[in-house]
Amino acid sequence: MSSPRPAEFPAALSVAAAPPAPGTAPGDRRDDAAWRLATAFVLSRRSPHTRRAYARDIRDFYTWCAQADLNPLHARRVHIDAYAHELAGPQPRTGRPAAESTIARKLSTLAGLYAYGVAEDVLDRSPLTGVIRPRTTHDSVSTGLDRDEVAALLAAAAADGPRAHALISLLAHNGLRIDEALSRDVEHLQTERGHQVLRLRRKGGHTATAPLAPPVIHALTVYLAGRTSGPLFCTRTGRRVDEPAAWRLIRRLAHRAGLPQADRINPHSLRHTFVTAALDAGVSLRDVQDGAGHRDPRTTRRYDNSRHNLDRHPSYAVSTFYAAGRSTETTGRRDS
Question: Quick one: 186 and 99 in the same domain?
Answer without folding.
Answer: no
